[in-house]
Specification:
The protein has 243 residues and is α/β, with parallel strands linked by helices. The chain folds into two domains: 2-126, Rossmann fold; 142-237, Orthogonal Bundle (Arc Repressor Mutant, subunit A), CATH 1.10.10. It is 37% helix and 23% strand. It contains eight helices and 14 strands. The strands form four sheets. Strands 4-3-5-6-7 form a five-stranded parallel sheet, with helices on both faces. A four-stranded antiparallel sheet has the order 8-9-10-11, with no helix packed on it. Helix 4 (92-100) packs parallel to helix 8, helix 6 packs across helix 7 and helix 6 (168-178) crosses helix 8 (205-217). The longest helix has 14 residues, at 113-126. It is globular and about 55 Å long.
Length: 243
């Protein structure tokens, strides 16, 4: 898949299973992606030292440094490259922890490559676009609330002028909420707005991303002013921080 008809998007697949690496390499190349492979965290480091990538498909269970540790390390070092984590289908706790440490989405194993492709497209659509001088933006607006400025064009969140890091998933979630001020949004609606897909019952990933946003925005994440819970419904963005 090309970006602005210039170059194919680069996807780095990190998995210790050579069969999965080879399957995804062939499948994603057929879909127009440039694919790089790594069998563990050390190989990932070597790839990222010599090249930049548009998205990382990261297996959670690997010998040595596992996917959670890799994701946590990348985010701690300021790397905001979108990450889709591959998890065991039954391990909901791992999925939640993956999102808590900064993954943008997840997919349980075994999976259909077409489903992974759909997730990749969805995450890349939420990614900040490559800036072209003089090109018009689809979102030329800045939402201000409290000490914060949320720039929908630059896809940045600032507090008193200082940038706050957002993953692509967190940006999409915050955008969905601020675009509907004082309007309670259900989890089903948020899944459609932020991810472009149906909400899965018992999926706590939306709650995890809201929780991460609260830790960035709220003075007290346990008593939020801006991103409030509407019991029995979902969440609501309150610009002035009042109930």
């Amino acid at each position: 898949m090309a970006t602005n008809n210039t170059r194919p998007n680069k996807v780095l697949v990190v998995d210790d299973d050579v069969r999965i690496r080879d399957l995804l390499r062939r499948y994603l190349m057929q879909e127009g992606f440039e694919v790089m492979l790594a069998e563990d965290g050390k190989a990932l480091n070597r790839v990222l030292q010599r090249d930049s990538v548009d998205l990382i498909v990261l297996d959670l269970m690997m010998p040595g440094e596992d996917g959670l540790s890799i994701c946590r390390r990348l985010r701690a070092n300021g790397d905001r490259t979108p990450i889709i984590m591959l998890t065991a289908k039954s391990e909901d706790v791992d999925r939640i922890v993956g999102l808590e440490v900064g993954a943008d989405d997840y997919l349980g194993k075994p999976f259909n490559p077409r489903e992974l492709l759909a997730r990749i497209h969805a995450v890349l659509r939420r990614r900040p676009p490559t800036e072209v001088p003089g090109a018009p933006s689809q979102d030329q607006e800045v939402v201000k609330f409290g000490p914060f400025e949320f720039d929908l064009s630059l896809r940045t969140l600032r507090k008193d002028g200082a940038d706050l890091p957002l993953t692509t998933g967190e940006f999409a979630m915050l955008k969905a909420l601020v675009r509907h001020p004082r309007q309670p949004l259900s989890r089903e609606k948020l899944a459609q707005l932020a991810r472009g897909r149906e909400f899965e019952p018992f999926d706590r990933s939306l709650d995890v991303q809201v929780s991460r946003l609260r830790k960035l925005i709220e003075e007290d994440a346990t008593s939020p002013r801006y991103l409030q819970t509407v019991w029995g419904v979902g969440y609501v963005f309150v610009p002035d921080g009042n109930a």
